[in-house]
Amino acid sequence: MPTILRFRYAGSLPMLLLVALVARPSPAADEPCPCKVIDDVVYGHKDGLALTLDVVTPEKNAKGLGVILVSSGGWHSDKSDIPARNLKRMNEEHWVQGLLKGGYTLFIARHGSGPRYHVPEMVEDIRRAVRFVRLHAKDYGVDPEHLGITSGSSGGHLSLMVGLTADDGHANSEDLVERASSRVQAIVSWFPPTDLVNWRKPGGYTAIVKARPGMFEEMFGEITDIEAQLKSISPIEFVSTDDPPLLLLHGDLDLVVPLQQSEVLRDKYVATKLPVKLIVHHKGMHSEWPGIMDDYPAVWEWFDKYLGNEASKTVAE
Fold first, then answer.
1. What is the Cα–Cα distance from 182 to 133, expressed in whole angstroms?
2. Does position 197 have pLDDT exceeding 50, yes or no?
């Protein structure tokens, strides 16, 4: 019987719902996780609090390719969203197992959450996580020059924001982490918000203001110029010619984040002549659909191609 997992999501932006996911076990829940785990690695501090990530490495067929998996739902992040030490949970949900089966070493990164922290600060947290992984990549047996990033919904949004606003590091910083590049070489984003101003239609954010009073305050703290602020966290605003190849996956019956959000970003990528692919799932809902594990070969193919290891592609059975 599938296990019901709690997960917070970005919501239809009109709703910012708490959504229960019905997870599809793979492999059987009572099998040991075929991986080794180092959890709660500190990648930074803010306000006296630690920012942490977990390192999960497949025991067999590890490719030496690192993928940052953003642990986020509804722009909230904690250990219960994507767990590292709860092996039963890890075996029951696709986020970890789908990538482990492809041979990738995962860096499950958590960001500061509301109400204390807001979305722009969360982008900075995950950007720092990428820098940290690159600086220490060889300690975990992965190539520092070929890193991917992925997640879904708000995590997919943060993956895009970091991937599309990256830099080469700050050479004069006293912090070694900040000297490292925040660039990734490939992005895989599942059902992400991408254009928060034009939600479903041009200027669609105005309907959210009426339907969900206070929502944007939750995202930004103080509202000064809502349209400008929404643009500042809309990935579509940051597409440029040096951006990483992008794979998008989205269901056509997603009532939380409309398919339109992936379509417009795909179109912007195409117009910019960047590698992009959108996989649309017929009757696919938000966060999960029957047979979602069957989509991971496309994810493996994307990461293998653009992380530079296509020739040595091996997938655990």
1. 9
2. yes
